Amino acid sequence: MCGIVGYVGRSEAAPILLDGLRRLEYRGYDSAGIAIVNGDRIETRKCAGRIANLGSLMAENPPAGHFGISHTRWATHGKPTDQNAHPHFDATGKLALVHNGVIENYQALKDQLIRDGDKNFSSDTDTEVLAHLIGKLYEDSATTDTRPDGSAPANGGAPSYSKKARLVDAVRAALRQVIGTYGIALVHRDIPDFIVGARRGSPLVLGVGKNENFLASDVSAIVAHTRDAVYLNDFDVVAVERDRFEISSVAGEAGSYELRKVEFGDTDIKKGDYPHFMLKEIFEQSGSVRDALRGRLSHEECTAKLGGLNMSAAQLRDVGRVVLTGCGTALHAAMVGEYLIEALAQIPTEVEYASEFRHRNSPMTRDTLVFAISQSGETADTLGALRESKRKGYRTLGICNNVASTIARESDGGVYMHAGPEIGVAATKSFTSQVTILTAIGLLLGRMRHLSPAQGTGIIETLEALPGQIDQVLKLSDQTKAIAKKYASVNGMLFFGRQFNFPVALEAALKMKEITYLFAEGHPSAELKHGIIALVRSDLPSVFIAPDDAVFSKNVNNIEQVRARKGPVIAVTSGEGVGKLKKIADDVIEIPVAPECVTPILSVIPLQLLAYHLAVELGLDVDKPRNLAKSVTVE
Ligand code: AGP
After folding, report:
1. Whole-number pLDDT of residue 142
2. Which ligand 1 atom is at minimum distance from the Cα of 329?
3. For helices 599-617 and 502-516, what crossing angle results, to 10°?
4. Which one, of 57, 59, 53, 91, lies nearest residue 72 by Cα?
5. Higher per-residue pLDDT: 74 or 323
6. Residue 6 Cα distances to 57, 202, 246, angstroms
7. Whose CA is nearest to atom 16 of ligand 1?
8. How far is it, in rounded angstroms, from Cα 382 to Cα 351?
9. pLDDT exceeding 90 applies to what percent of the chain?
């Protein structure tokens, strides 16, 4: 939700900031803006719409200067207009600020500022209030020679109480009044080559270069310039100059940091020869599943090795209940995980919407193990669920893709997906990586209990065969494209599956909704007759995920029920199911035969492709669907 980039160095800031924003566009794309300090003025360009619009504006009238801030927005407060686009300014117009997050008490702060005589608000945003508050505290401290909190500075006041220190103090004092979340970056016209950043609840990373430094919501914005990064913690305030930076806390204490190497490079975040990131990421899945398993399977012990869980054999054996939590696609992966862990380890497992789990008092047993599943590792609801579980004293683990993300750092341990950057807003490879890891977790927990070495070896071999089978499934792209063309004029689609493939029906429907904007629903196949069948008609296709498994014949019954009511049927099946379904379905998509616990990894891919090709057929922006953002850091 919103992307921030800041730069201070010797190069022209404009191209660096604009390029960084393009790489963060997945975080929000309803308006964008830039503020660069050029001598004694701040050059600002901002407008509603995509970053391409901002690019045109900047091309007409290029801003100059060597330090500045920029923002791509996903609106929370105020419509996506030119006026509401960031950066926002303080009342003097000398301080510019960009913000990712929500200032929940902005109205109370604004009322107080207005009572104090500030009438210069020009937007509907919560961010502008924060800019005004910091600006006021900064200006007040200049006239009183006191710190913004009223105390005297350590050195007794001006002149050695520098503008830089005053600005940092003003930021701290303002943030102490804020209720809500923020990742911010700000510049002041009177303080050359100086940016202040801070975070609470929204990610912010410092990129450390040579004679230049960067701030960004995500390393992908800066990885073309440096791979040395400091992932800031909540309540960190960072003062950034060309050749130095200083981290402290909102409370004013000196901070510590760890410099880390970013795992991926610039080429990993480019589309290459693919027309869209989503298609690239779909096609990366044999590699990403292989990477999710790399070094994690032991033929010798017939089990999975997941050292990152930070749990002893005895602790793993004592797990009596598992809770899997996440949002959207990650929640659907969790639902597959429930089937997997119960089947492989026979441990009662529950799936909880993170947004619900965090606010309810779910009864938990002492031996419950909680997994927070999140590609970004920054989803506010999932983070909230993790914190609530930790607060109650439960061991809470993360399954994340983004290294050093907040969820990864705050959990007691976990498993990284190693799927590489996922830029397409519609999650694809993260789903198959999550399911792969959940299978490994099921195997590990199962082998602590009743699974025999032979059964363990069987599962390992099944997992090792997956990348090759995924390559086979990817060959279905042309077939799914033809099916997409055939159904390009429909108004919606229904998706059905049973057991392990019921969550795939939900995930396939989510993909369809997100990028084609068609009405789409996923259901357990058997629910059809309990109400959904009323929707069936000749112009509403039903997609059945019906591999040749223990419930195949039950799925066939449901397909017949749809056919009897003239509903078109697209079937995803395998093995002997192919011949049988060709007789009754309109279109049959054949996936390889595999044990039922891993079929979701194979069956979801043609449905990702179906949604993709249908969206392309409809001329829609696949990678940036309307109203969505990749990383949902607001509640
Ligand atoms: C999936 O296509 C979505 N864009 C969305 O549902 C996503 O899966 C959800 O917001 C969770 O994100 P996370 O995995 O980064 O936590």
Report:
1. 79
2. 8
3. 20
4. 53
5. 323
6. 19, 15, 15
7. 374
8. 12
9. 87
- Burial class from Cβ neighbours inside 10 Å (0-12, 13-18, 19+) for residue 317 reads exposed
C-beta of 432 in contact with ligand 1 (< 6 A): no
Verify whether ligand 1 is closer than 6 Å to residue 425 (CB atom).
yes
CA distances to 162, 173, 455 from 145, in Å? 10, 15, 73
- Directed axis angle between helix 599-617 and helix 453-474, to 10°? 20
For the chain, how far is it from start to end, CA to CA, in angstroms?
11
Answer whether 405 contacts ligand 1 (Cβ < 6 A): no
559 membership: H or E segment, kind and range: helix 552-563
Please tell me what DSSP assigns to residue 114.
Answer: H
Question: Contact, 323 vs 341, CB < 8 A?
Answer: no
**In this structure, which amino acid lies at residue 213?**
N
Give me the pLDDT at residue 315, please.
96
Residue 480 has what pLDDT? 98
pLDDT of 267:
80
pLDDT, mean over the chain: 94
Catalytic residues, by residue number, are: 2, 630
Residue 225, pLDDT score: 96
Report DSSP state, residue 393: T
CA distance 294 to 281: 19
Q: Which of 320, 296, 317, 294 is nearest to 306 (CA)?
A: 296
Nearest atom in ligand 1 to the alpha carbon of residue 376 is 15
More confident residue, 116 or 269: 116
Residue 382 alpha carbon, nearest atom of ligand 1:
16
DSSP element (H, E) containing 313? helix 313-317
Q: CA 252 to CA 140: how far, in whole Å? A: 19
Query: How confident is the model at residue 154, as a pLDDT?
Result: 54
CB-ligand 1 contact for 419 (6 Å cutoff)? no
Per-residue pLDDT, 283 = 98
Number of Cβ within 10 Å of residue 226's Cβ equals: 18
Range name among 84-93, 148-157, 190-199, 225-234 with the lowest pLDDT average = 148-157
pTM for this model (two decimals): 0.87
pLDDT at 439 over 60: yes
* Orientation angle between helical segments 429-447 and 285-293, nearest 10 degrees: 30
What is the chain's length? 635
Q: What are phi and psi of 361, to 5 degrees?
A: -100, 75
Give the residue from 73, 190, 201 showing the smallest Cα distance to 142: 190
- 180 CA distance to ligand 1 middle (Å): 22
- The residue behind tokens 């500075």 is 153
pLDDT for the residue 627: 85
